[in-house]
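Contributing: when you submit paired examples, paste them exactly as shown. First protein:
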Amino acid sequence: MDVEGKKPTNPVKAIREFCLGCVGNSSNEVKMCPSVKCPLYPFRFGKNPYRTKREMSEEQREAAAERLRKAREEARKA
């Protein structure tokens, strides 16, 4: 779906575009939005407030670093 000729990259960005259009394309007005009962209200800044940051254990971090090292070596060989 096109929003004013733009294709948002993801649903949360589409919500941000919708909120901007709702208040006249003013970021400041989005910030001061009085419609707290709107189901899109928590997403109005273009971020998902319910998404938690992934935490990696030390073992997972080491394994990821090893995979990256191997991938870089393979890329150099090719």
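Second protein:
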Amino acid sequence: MSGTLYVVATPIGNLADSSPRSIDVLRSADIVACEDTRTTRTLLAHHGIEARSVALHAHNERKAGEKLLRALREGSSVALVSDAGTPAISDPGALLVAAAHREGLRVVAVPGPNAAIAAYSASGFAAESFQFLGFISAKKKDSLRQLDVPWPVILYEAPHRVLETVSALLEHCGPDREIAIAREISKKFEEIARMKLADAPGWLAAGAHRQQGEFVLVLGPGEGRGPEAADAERILGILLQKLPPGEAASVASKITGVPRKALYASALKRST
């Protein structure tokens, strides 16, 4: 019989967040596939686990994945982990999981810590849906347009870019849209603060420590743009690759029902 691929969530800071089930799976797995074996070794040692570990990261995922698939076919169990949180969520692992599904191998989720969900739950933005974008480029207009939606948006950001990104969000979204900034979730110096975007750059600049650590940004719901408008902008962007602005706006309007005038104005703005 073939083995099982376990997708195991691990702590994002506090090692006490390891679930008893995740510890059992890591202890019993034949192979632990790690984003960084040195990081995972700390977790395993904390729980007294001796396991065969192999590296599976962004630069070797295809090659390492082939070896792990072979092990699964031969009956070995594999526990997939990232450095922190849930694998394949803005972290390596999705290619291996997809390949396992294609081959009909058993895939089991071992749920647990996730920075995006933890930050969203502590943001206080009540909504029936939210959007997770992971890391985006705040320098690209198309990336910022993804924020123009009437529901919360969750972003990841690195410490050396967080002030620049928040400033770009302020310029694009306006001063009154709210944001929750979560840094170092579950760690000793955790901070979660909610404020208007107008106040966010100042909050980050208030102390050097405010721009250190791992960040999750949760934007509150935007105004005046429903899913139809968001789809129209996406379709318009595709059409503009082949058509002039007027024609692209007309076709996008017919497909989505969004007024041509608004789409044409957007097309002209994109071309400037």
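If you have annotations for the second protein, write them as plain sentences, like these:
The chain has eleven helices and ten strands.
Residues 61-73 form the longest helix (13 residues).
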